[in-house]
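Re: your question from the hallway

Yes, I did run it. Sequences:
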Amino acid sequence: MTTTLETPAGAAQLAPMPARTRVRKPLSRRLTVLIGQLVVLVVGLSAWQFLPMIPALQSLSHVFDSYFVSSPIKVATTVFNLATGSDNVVLIWPYMGQTVFASLVGTLIGLTLGALAGLVLSNFAFLSDVMRPFIVAANATPRVALIPVVVIIFGLSITTSIAIAVLVVFFVAFFNAYEGGTSIPPQIVQNARLLGASNVRILFRVRLQYALAWTITGLPLAVTFAIISVVTGEILTGYQGTGYLLSTASTTGNASLTFGVVFYLAVIGLVIVMGAEVVRRRVLHWWAK
Amino acid sequence: MIKEDSLKQSSVAVKDRAIQPLIEINDLSFSYVEGDPVLAGVDVTIEPGTIVGVVGPSGCGKSTLLSILAGLVQPTRGSVVWAPEDDATRHPISMMFQGDTLLPWLTVKQNVGLHYKLADRRLRPPATAQRERVETLIRLAGLNGAEDRFPYQLSGGMRRRTSFLSAVTPGPRTLLLDEPFSALDEPTRISIHQDVHDVIKQERITTLLITHDLAEAISLSDKVLVMTARPASVFKTFDIPFGEKRKMLELREDPEFLRLYGEIWEQLATQIQRAEAKKKK
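Structure:
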């Protein structure tokens, strides 16, 4: 038989899966890092809580006035009240539901449309040349400036929030998918052609996967953008969602409520981005950057 | 696509197919629209079932020759004449590229069977035949046990084995190898040479191998062509007498191998010198 210097079927070689192995830093190092992080947290919160109690600083700037900046203890109380609806504070859940729903639906629609557009344009050079200036111009336009237009078209409804998210996510997905579709090494396309593939089959069997991979890579970013734009829209229209709560809080001068809502927004953002990251890892385990 | 000009058939050639060349490259020339010629009158005759190795100075135009044969580039002058094929459904040509062509989201098995996913439905064999073919090839190239792994879980050598099999799966009449193993270390390369050689011979695939590595060319080929400095034409041709049962590890210490290496290197060196001299001008 053949001489195998390199043993491809060796059992020892099969065990490790490179992508799964992660080098962990020693425990002592991880502990000191954790302690450092706790120190930063405690110092920051203490400064927020206690600096505004110094009268000399209060007269210096509003930043040191607890009427404007609230305090960690008051914010924590508000956060609790927002969750339970106690102490005459509104329940945050229905508002949060509206924001999250609009962001997720908007991301889904924007991602699908953007990925499709990017894929098609990456496969047809002529179309891409024709469309390029329009896309560059559209992308350079601040999407937030279009919110009034969207409001006029869809009125004050959940559709408006979704449309705003779609508007923003579409371009993120589009550019990623386009990049993915065009960045395929040329020999991969040539090889596919020599193996008997038609242009259409290359589109569906080769380019689509690259475009999808790049689109999903951009998922965490797309979701973040969606939340930002939806909340911005809600603040501007003052119609519903956490953005509505924020605008009410600021017009009534309720700093604790503002910070409380911001806290929930931060949590939403974190959870959704982490979720998107998990999806990305699962689907793209083969994707080495 | 590949032009299959029908060969002018004399009655003799039809009777005696064995001596009829599969590919006849006549006076093949190529130059870019602006710039010096790359190929200047390449003449090569390739017998069916043989492996022809092509060596030459860096940048002499070897890869351009392959691109023309693959139909990726049109020659400026000259012709490539392919012997007519009895079986119209036979896959005409495959190529193994220098760069990675594995699709990263497919397993080894799926990559080896890539042709079946890409080719026209009418040209695909039944599913069971597809599976058997892929399994047989994987066993031949020593990839068994790794069938369900993804490319990122493979060593460099295993990736190259998979790429090679992917090109062989359609049962091509001609296989083009473009510096396929240049990125591998020596022991891995010699091990791959054995399997690649055996599979090509077993499958009776006519093969053109472009390489920088003279030892690789001699190990794998039945005939080695030394190209001139750019613009390239064939400078010298050498027959390699080791046959189909050659053993790569033993070959390296065979006095005949060493003698041939010296003899061909002497010719190759003159062309490398010429290429260097031209660069300095």
